[in-house]
Design a protein that fits this description.
Strand order of the largest sheet: 6-7-8-3-9-10
Number of strands: 10
Number of helices: 7
Shape: globular
Strand content: 25-35%
Bound molecules: adenosine-5'-diphosphate, magnesium ion
Radius of gyration: 18 Å
Length: 239
């Protein structure tokens, strides 16, 4: 049976603002199994990033339950959350977030440095991952010497290098043109076929249609959660 990677039950998140308590997530129930590829859509301000930050152990919920690989995380300390983050999760952001004065190899190897892996093994694993995303010849380049699409592929290599259980990508193609965006989505499709579990937030239908499941947020709640195949949609960029 497939392992449940993520489970949220009645998940809530409020912020304290000058105007008082402001609830952004009103009780979100979401289950994600190993090998799934989910696109999260929804209007700006509907709580997608807030939800992703909680899934990513970057932020804590104010109500409900979040289980990551079966373990409830809402009672973990910040250090314990950081440990789960490093061990189980990989992140891809809209702005690539690569270190500007480090080359690709150093950037991709960074999570392994945090994991205290010795340098020779670190560089070998990072180089393997750089080759897997098609950037072998550019390993010694700095990010500003690469195109946006190449930088995002490097960020994906960095997200994958420590063999996470789940990759979370928030608007990963938001800064890319159509050709580079399709290239990134082809890479995600290939990685998912090889077994990677993926959650991608996007406001672009073309990007969402590369996933296998679509989860739609509105006003801090999930209002739709379905498989693309059930909707009669043929997934994009798959042959
Ligand atoms: P999305 O990613 O769907 O555009 P967000 O999760 O970023 O939405 O934001 C959802 C709502 O939460 C917005 O109304 C936003 O203004 C509010 N919000 C996000 N972060 C904070 C914060 N740190 N303090 C107060 N309000 C916040
Ligand atoms: Mg957002």
């Amino acid at each position: 049976m497939l392992q449940t990677v993520i489970e949220t039950l009645d998940l809530k998140k409020s912020y304290h603002t000058e105007a008082g308590e402001f609830e952004v997530l009103h009780g979100v129930g979401f289950t994600l199994c190993q090998g799934e590829f989910v696109a999260i859509m929804g209007p700006s301000g509907s709580g997608k990033s807030t939800f992703m930050n909680i899934l990513g152990c970057l932020d804590s919920p104010t109500g409900g339950v979040y289980r990551l690989l079966g373990e409830p995380v809402e009672k973990l300390s910040p250090d314990e959350l950081a440990a789960r983050r490093n061990r189980y999760l990989g992140f891809v952001f809209q702005g690539f977030n690569l270190l500007p004065r480090a080359d690709l190899l150093e950037n991709v190897a960074l999570p392994l440095l945090y994991a205290k892996m010795p340098s020779a093994r670190r560089n070998k694993k990072a180089m393997e991952m750089i080759e897997r995303v098609g950037l072998g010849p550019w390993a010694k380049r700095q990010p500003n010497q690469l195109s946006g699409g190449q930088q995002q592929r490097a960020a994906i290599a960095r997200a994958l290098v420590a063999s996470p259980s789940l990759v979370l990508a928030d608007e990963p193609t938001g800064n890319l043109d159509t050709q580079n965006s399709d290239e990134i989505m082809r890479l995600f499709i290939e990685l998912n076929r090889q077994g990677l579990t993926l959650v991608v937030v996007t406001h672009e239908p073309d990007v969402a249609e590369c996933a296998l499941r679509l989860t739609r947020f509105r006003d801090g709640l999930i209002v739709e959660d379905s498989l693309l195949a059930e909707k009669g949609l043929k997934p994009r960029l798959r042959n």
